[in-house]
Structure formats: C-alpha cells, structure tokens
Amino acid sequence: MISATPNPVVERRMPHRIAFVVAPGFEMLDLAGPLCAFNLARKLHGADYELAVVSATGGTVEGSAGLPVDTRGPKAAEKARTVIAIGGPMAHVPQYCVETVACLASVSARLGRIASVCTGAFFLAEAGILDDRRATTHWRWAPLLQSRFPQISVEADRIFVNDRNVWTSAGITAGVDMALALIEVDHGPDLARRIARDMVVYHRRPGGQSQFSAILDMEPASDRIRAALTYAREHLTEDLSVERLAEAACMSVRQFSRVFAMETGETPARAVERLRVEVARSSVEDSNRPFDALAREAGFGDSERMCRSFIRVLGLSPQELRRISRRRAQ
C-alpha cells in the first residue's frame, strides 16, 4: 500500500495544467497509467500539477472496455500547458474522431508541449502536429502511421520520442515511461525515481530502449525456463554459467540445456548475450558514458567483448549506434 504521507519535494508555484484528451473507445490503461504517475507526483510529493480529463464534447465518454469516464470540455485543454492525446483501438482509423483532431489542432500552436500515448499519435498526425518530426507509436501500427503520413519519421522500435517538445510513446505501458520522463523534465530525476517506486515500476526505461523484450521474444513455454531467464536478467553482472542457470530453473544441467534450446531456439550463452545487449543498448544510445563502464554494468566485463556481442546481435558496433542516435536527436 502506498503511504499517504506527502513528501513536499517541490516548491509551490503556478499550477502546471495537464489535459488528457480522450475520444470514444479510448484505451483505459493509456489514460490511467500516465494519469496515475502525475497524480502521485501531485498528491504524495507536492508537485504543482493540475489534472483534467478532456474530450471534444465534454460529458461522459466510454472507453474500449466499457468503463465510462466523466470529462471536461475542450476549453480545459485550452488552459493547459501540456496536452496528452490518449490512444485507443480505433484511433488509427482515418477520420475516426474529427472533433478530437480539431481540438488538438486548435490548442497545439500555443502549448508548451503536446504528447500522445500509443495510437494517440494518429490524432496528432491528422492534426499536422507531427509533420517533419520524429515519432513513435505501438509497434503494430507504426508501419501504418508511416505509410499514411510519410512526412513523419516513424521510429517503430522506440519506447518514446521527444522531438522539439512533441512527445509520442509506444503502446500502453510506455505511456508510464513517458510520463516519468516528463516528470523528470519538470522536477528532476529524484522525483521521477520516487514516483517509479510508488508505482512499483522500473525507473525508467529510456526512450531509446526497444519496445521488444528479449525474454518475450524468446517465448519460453515453461515456467522453469522463464524463471532462469528472469534470474539471468536480474544478475547480468555476475557469472551466468549454464550450471547456475540450471540451478535457478531447478533442473539438471543436461535437461536444462536440452529444454532451453527446444523452447527458445538458442543456447543459454546466446540468450544471456542478447539480454546483456538489450540492457546496454539504451545506455549506449541515450548517454555519453564511457563504453567500458557500460560494458561492466551489463556484465560484459570490457568494451571489446561488448562490441563483439553488439555486432553479433545487432549488426552494429556501440560506436555506430551512438552516432546514429546522435544524428536522430539533431
């Protein structure tokens, strides 16, 4: 249970109004995740946020799960400093909700920043807000976003993207990552870390991290193999021999090696390498820290071993990935 004792880490000032814009059939978690993050910052830590759920018509709007939400009218968005467009399973359909697009277009010019969660990017795209910008959305809909709006540079494998204060995030839970990043921009990393702890989520997946998880990609069928992969992910800096992984799976080494290869299509050593690359990649792309330090933190030991693994897994060296990331950010 989250403690209700406030922790006033932020000085009081004029409230930062945030409007969450929903359309009929919106995805509840797209709204609830970011809304919860900002609300915890406000209620538990004294952050200066004022929150409103807004729609183009005002009144009750029903989400995709059938749960109705009471909303305020578009004037509430006009008073906001940050507007966040919430996605849903129909948001990618052309002209699905022209009123929502018009609302976003009317407020975008004078906003400090505007953002979207998941397929909410389609609303921003139809409003012309993403023109000549980098953006992302749920990986399933990223090709459609790119084909319909070629003037946008869609980065399908990103958790979230910020291009000149227009923020877009990937599917569903990535909205929480984006919200934590926005809180960090507003009030610093310490508050963002506190909110992540309050929400019991990882603080925080960097925007450059892949939408895909190596563990999910390997799709092991049995709980024991999943347990071994989870153990490996949590102990990457340690020696992860096949014997140690087999022990984590409560299996003999011979049985573990056979079942692991059958369920994942890879050897345990190769799987551990992929997990280490996954962890190191976001830091390589999103920081200027020395490669040797990043290699040690991911369990490679040194930058040479990390470089060889990056080339095997990604086809690019850490140096090349960092150069590409910097070019994207320009």
Task: Kindly describe this structure.
The structure is a single chain. By secondary structure, the protein is of the alpha/beta class. Helix content is 48%, strand content 13%. It is built from 15 helices and ten strands. The protein has a six-stranded mixed beta sheet, with helices on both faces. A two-stranded antiparallel sheet has the order 3-4. It has a two-stranded parallel ribbon with strand order 7-8. The radius of gyration is 22 Å and the shape is elongated. The model has no long low-confidence stretch (mean pLDDT 89).
Please give a quick description of this structure.
By secondary structure, the protein is α/β, with parallel strands linked by helices. It has 15 helices and ten strands.
Keywords:
330 residues; alpha/beta; six-stranded mixed sheet; two-stranded antiparallel sheet; 13% strand
Produce the secondary structure layout.
Elements: E1 16-21, H1 28-45, E2 49-54, E3 59-62, E4 68-71, H2 75-78, E5 82-86, H3 98-108, E6 113-117, H4 120-126, E7 134-135, H5 142-148, E8 153-154, E9 160-163, E10 166-169, H6 174-187, H7 189-199, H8 214-218, H9 223-234, H10 242-248, H11 253-264, H12 268-286, H13 291-298, H14 303-314, H15 318-329
Parallel strand pairs: 1-2, 1-5, 5-6, 6-10, 7-8
Antiparallel strand pairs: 3-4, 9-10
Helix pairs in contact: 1-6, 1-7, 6-7, 9-10, 10-11, 12-13, 12-14, 12-15, 13-14
